[in-house]
Amino acid sequence: MSKLMIHAEDLSKRYVLGAFGAASFRDELTDLFDRLVKRTERSRSPGGSNRDFWALDGVSFDIEEGDTVGLIGRNGAGKSTLLKILSRITMPTRGKVTMHGKVAALLEVGTGFHPDLTGIENVYLNGAILGMKRWEIRSRLDSILEFSGVGPFADTPVKRYSSGMRVRLAFAVAAHLRQDILIVDEVLAVGDHEFQRKCLGKMGEVARQGRTVIFVSHNMFAVSRLCAKCMYLKDGRLMGMGETRDIISEYLRDSMGQSGCVQWENGFAEPGIDDFVLLGIGLVGPSGGIDSRFSVVDTVTIRFEFEASQPIWAFQIDVMLRSEDGVLVMRVSNNDDPSVNRFLEPGRHVYELTIPAYRLNQGSYTIGAQAHSRNSRYLFRLDDILSAEVELIARDNEHLLKSEGLLYPAVEWKRHRSECQVIQSRDSG
């Protein structure tokens, strides 16, 4: 009989929108200061009233030793809140969780790193936090540095690392040091394809050693490849837990039902940071209106509307298009076009990305996007925020044939007689 590693019972987490604890740490300190000097309490909710928001609501599950469990769901579903509870970073408002064994969690880029310490010093620091002896850490140090690829910069302060270097080192530490439960969030998206492949292989190796892995990702292909079980969160509730294939199918059916436009009407709900907010994102059809159903002969335009209160330098927006089974169809950026001005003056802006006709094959797709500015400062990140259905619908008496694959090839064949032998046999000449 397998050992029970995690038992969660009625986990619920409540936040109060517009009150202390609803926004960033800086805002919380400002609110506290306002209270101390008896100023009028600021409110970030409509009408100035506080509202309860349940990030998790009655979530219960069991995870056994050696399980590899995927955690999926749209942005705002409660995934990060659940991971923070499992990692003991925050406490639930209601319910309880019982965990057996040591936990190594990789939730954010550089989590647990001291910026002024070198890479090697941070490895020893993280190992000590996990309760390891110095000789144990030393025995794994070479493997950690080799896996992360930061060996030449091992004696450099972490604050001088790029975001990719920090996440590579953080994952290497979490995966190589001793732990019973490994929790990995979507931070792997920061790394390149080769590093992601290494990470998936390492997590598989950890699982084969009998340790427990919880993997959060919007890449359904990676989840299905690594995880035997899967959990699906939606609006703070556990919609299902079971075999990965079945749970992913349920999630994708829900995702495909989303509209072709998302707008944020309230300031506290808009994705972004202090000086930048995303107001809306939508799919525009050939007629110029919002749509989520297209033909293979249609252009598909993805429109972003956002507002900057301060100048934004080196603005870059990336768009990811995935098939219904999670395969990345394309990833494009405004940085790919040198003619696009990447400086944003204060004010409202609209960005549009147009996918030409005869590119996407029939099928269901999800669209995600992220944006960052100079020094890799992330402005927002939205995974699978929109969905589109591409159909084999002819327009203007066109004749369309069904085609296999992710793309609908608009190719041209020619046949002509040749005066010379283009392809020669090996025995000739």
Question: Could you describe the 3D structure shown?
Answer:
There is one protein chain. The protein is an alpha/beta fold and 429 residues long. The chain contains eight helices and 19 strands. A six-stranded mixed β-sheet has the order 5-6-7-3-8-9, with helices on one face. Helix 5 runs parallel beside helix 6.
SSE blueprint and pairings:
Blueprint: E1 4-17, H1 25-36, E2 51-64, E3 68-72, H2 79-86, E4 94-99, E5 103-106, H3 119-129, H4 134-148, H5 163-176, E6 181-184, H6 193-208, E7 212-216, H7 220-226, E8 229-234, E9 237-243, H8 244-256, E10 261-263, E11 272-273, E12 276-284, E13 293-295, E14 300-308, E15 316-323, E16 328-333, E17 347-355, E18 363-373, E19 377-391
Parallel strand pairs: 3-7, 3-8, 5-6, 6-7, 13-19
Antiparallel strand pairs: 1-2, 1-4, 8-9, 10-12, 11-12, 12-14, 14-17, 15-16, 15-18, 18-19
Helix pairs in contact: 3-4, 4-5, 5-6
